[in-house]
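dumping the sequnces here before i forget
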Amino acid sequence: MKNSITIARHEIQSLFRERTFILLLAVFAAMTLASAYIGWSSQHTIDQVYTAAAEQMRQSGKAAPPSPFADYPHLALLKNMMIYITLIGGLLAISTGYAAGMRERKAGVVKLLFSRPVGKEEFLLGKLLGIAFVLAAVMFLAAAISLVSSAVLVSLNVLDIIRLFSFYGFSWVYLLGFALLGFSSALVKDDEVVALLIPIIFWVAITFVLPELTSALYPTGSLNPTLPQTDILQSPALQTIHGAVYPFSISEHYKETAATILNINATDAPVRSGILNVVTTFCWMLLCLAGSSIAVRSFDKSRW
Amino acid sequence: MAEKQFIIDVRSLSKKYGYHFAVDCLNLKVAEGEIFGFLGHNGAGKTTTVNMLTTLLQPTSGNAFVAGFDILREGIEVRKRIGYLPENVQLYDSMTAFENLEYFAKLSGISKPGERILQVLDFLDASGYRDKKMGALSKGMRQRIGIAQAILHEPRVLFLDEPTSGLDPFGVKQLRDTLLRLNEERGMTIFMNTHLLSEVTKTCSTIGVLSHGKLIHSDSLANTMKRFNDEASLEQVYLTIEEGRYEK
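..and the predicted 3d for all of it:
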C-alpha cells in the first residue's frame, strides 16, 4: 500500500505538469466560471421579457398574470454545467486516464520501475488512486468556482450548497468511468493511437450518438437537452428505438440525475426513472472499473 | 578455506520465444564481490538473461537465485537486493534528477531519501545536476543519474546492460571508475552485459561468454588469458572461444 501511495502521489504530480491536461483543465474551469453567468443571463433575459410584456399589458389596462419564472430554482443557472461535464469533462477524464496508463511507456521507465520491489497490482492501484484523486480535485475546483460565481449572482441557502457539492460528487462518478476507460485502453493496447481512439469512440457514442436516439427524439429535447419534457413520441418505430436504447444512454441518465440533484426540474415534468438513472450511472462506473481490473490482470510489463 | 559464496546461481535457465531459444539451459555462478563481464554477440541472449535475473521476464524453464532468493517465487525480495541499469537510461523527463531519484528511492523502501540522494550524487560527482530536468541532460549525465537510481538502496548486486553504449570516451572512463569504486569501496557485485572487450579487461574479474543462448565459456579473466599466449588480446581470446563453439 505504501508503494501505491507513492505512485499515486507521483501520478498527481505528473498530471498537473502535463500541457494537455492543464489546457483541458483551464478550458473546463473557464466554462464552469462562464456557466453561472450564462445561466443567470438567460434567466435575466426571460425576466426582462416578462417585465416588458407585463408593463405593456398594464398600459393597455389589462391585468398582468404573475411571472411563471419567479420561483425558478437558484441552481438552475448551472444547468449548462451538466453539458460541459459530458463534453469537456469527459475529454478531460479520458485524457487523465490515458496519460496515467501511458506515462511509463512513453517515458521508457517500465523496466526500471519494475526492477524495484513494486508489485504489478500495487503499481496499478497507485495509478487508479492517482486518477481518482485528480478527478476529485477537478470536481472540487469546479464546485468552488460554481459556488462563488453563483453566490455572486443569486443568494444560495445551505440546501443549495449541499445540492451543488452532491452534483459534483455524482459527476465525479460519471467521469471516473471515462478515466478508467482511457486507463484500461492505454494498458492493453500496443498502439498509442488506437489506445486513445477507443475511449474517444466510447465518449462520442455516449455523449452524442445515444442521446440522438433517445432525448433528441423528443422535439423539446433539443431545446432543453437536460429534460425531454413532452412525451409526444407517436411513431412505433421511434418508440421502439427509444425503448431499446434509453437504458444504455448513460449520458442521459447522468443528466437527468444531475438535474434532479440540482433541483432544476422541479417546475418541469418529472424525471422518467430516477432509480434507473442513478443505477445506470453507477453501473457504468463499475463496469469501467471491472474493465480496468481485467486490463490490470492482462497487463504484461515485459511487453513494454 | 571458506567455501565461495555465490550471489548469482543460475540453474538450467531457458527462455523460448516460439521455436527459438533466446537463452538455452544456462548454468552460471557468480561469486559475491566479483565484477562479472557477460560477453556475447548481438542477439546472443545477454539482455534476456539480465531481464530474467532482475525478475522482469519470466523464464520458460529453469531457475536462478540472486542474493539467495528465488527469482520465480521471491521476486520482490530479489528486487530489494539488486540495482538495475538498462541499456538506454530513461527517466521521467519532466522531472528533475532529484525528483526522479526521490521517487525511485521511495519505491525502493527508503522513506526519507533526501540525504541519501545527496550522498549518492556526491559519490558520483553529479551534485550539480540535482535540480536539472532529466530531459535537459546529456547521455553521460543521464547514465550517472541512472546509476544513482540503481545504487540508492545499496544493493548487493548491480546489473548493467551494455552500460557504455553511446557514451563518449570520457563517459566510458567515468563509468569504469565508478564501477570499480562501487566494487572496491562498497563490495558491490557487478554483473555487466557488454561487447566492449577493452572495457572487460579494465573492469571485470570474471567473464562468461554467451553465444546463441548458450554459455560457451565461464572463468576468471586471469585464467581465461592464461589459456592463451600472453600476447593474445581479449578480442582474439573471445573470437577463439566463439569459433571453438562453431567447430564443435
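Residues 19-59 of chain A form the longest helix (41 residues).
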